[in-house]
Design brief:
By secondary structure, the chain is an alpha+beta fold. It has 5 helices and 16 strands. Strand 12 and strand 13 form a beta hairpin.
Length: about 250
C-alpha cells in the first residue's frame, strides 16, 4: 500500500514538473484548427443547401423568366433590365430584355416563343388553358390595339393585351405557372416601390418618375400571374387592375 502511494506521488510530481516547464500552448493555432475542421464539416453537411441558395441568388441577380419582363433600371446606368424565372417540372427558360429608354413607347418584350397575333379576345380565349381577365375600366381614350398569345404547353400560356391612346400605352399580361421565382431590382433614386393589395392579393407597385412617368403593378392569384404596366399614373394602373373580370368564352 505504501509503495503504491509513493509511486502515485512520484508520478504526480513528474507530471507537475513537466507542465511547469512545458512551453505555453499556441491558442491561436489551436483555435484556427478547430475552425477549419468545423467549416469542413459544415460545408459537407450544407453543400446541397448552399448550391440551392447560390442558384436563387444568381436568378434574382440577373435572369429573366419565361414571358415575364419586369422593367428595372441598372444601378449607375440609364438602362432598364427585365428578369425572372418560371419553372415547369425540372426545366426552366431564362431570358433578358434591355432598352435604353422607356419613353412614350412600350418596352420591347422579347421571348423565345413567337407570339400568335389574334384578331380578337375571343380567339385567344378559345385556346387559352385558363380563363382570361379583361379590364372593365380603361383610362379615357384607350382602346385595345393588339392581342398576343404565347403558347407554352397544353397547360401553360401567356396572353398579352395591348392598349393605346395616342402616344400613351398600356399592357396587361397574364400567364399561369406551377412554380415561379421572380426577382426585381430597381434604383431608389429613380423608382418608387409600394406594397399594395390587388383583388385581395399582395402586389408590388413600381413607379418610375422620369420620361413622363411609367407605372407597373405585379401580383399573383394562385398559379396565375398578372402584370399591368404603362405610361399612366399609379392610381390609374390600380384602377385598371381593380376592374378586372373574367371574359366569358
Amino acid at each position: 500500500m505504501l509503495q503504491e502511494k509513493r509511486l502515485e506521488k512520484i508520478i504526480a510530481e513528474a507530471v507537475k514538473s513537466h507542465m511547469l516547464t512545458a512551453p505555453e500552448p499556441d491558442l491561436d493555432r489551436i483555435w484556427a484548427g478547430i475552425v477549419r475542421k468545423a467549416r469542413k464539416r459544415r460545408a459537407r453537411k450544407n453543400a446541397a443547401r448552399i448550391l440551392v441558395l447560390t442558384s436563387i441568388v444568381i436568378l434574382c441577380a440577373g435572369f429573366y423568366a419565361v414571358l415575364n419582363p419586369v422593367p428595372v433600371r441598372a444601378l449607375g446606368n440609364k438602362l432598364w433590365y427585365s428578369f425572372g424565372a418560371i419553372f415547369q417540372g425540372h426545366t426552366g427558360t431564362f431570358q433578358m430584355s434591355y432598352t435604353d429608354d422607356l419613353g412614350p413607347n412600350p418596352p420591347h418584350q422579347p421571348c423565345n416563343i413567337s407570339p400568335e397575333l389574334d384578331h380578337s379576345l375571343a380567339d385567344a380565349a378559345a385556346k387559352c388553358p385558363f380563363k382570361l381577365l379583361v379590364p372593365e375600366y380603361l383610362p379615357p381614350g384607350f382602346k385595345l390595339t393588339q392581342v398576343k398569345y404565347y403558347p407554352e404547353e397544353k397547360r401553360f400560356a401567356q396572353v398579352e393585351l395591348n392598349y393605346s391612346s395616342g402616344e400613351k400605352w398600356l399592357i396587361f399580361a397574364q400567364w399561369n405557372a406551377e412554380n415561379q421565382a421572380v426577382g426585381y431590382s430597381y434604383d431608389t433614386d429613380d423608382t418608387v416601390v409600394s406594397d399594395v393589395t390587388v383583388r385581395g392579393n399582395p402586389g408590388k407597385l413600381y413607379y418610375r418618375q422620369k420620361n413622363g412617368g411609367y407605372s407597373q403593378l405585379i401580383w399573383a392569384e394562385g398559379e396565375r400571374n398578372y402584370r399591368v404596366g404603362g405610361a399612366i399614373s399609379p392610381s390609374e394602373i390600380q384602377r385598371v387592375a381593380s376592374s378586372l373580370h373574367e371574359l366569358s368564352k
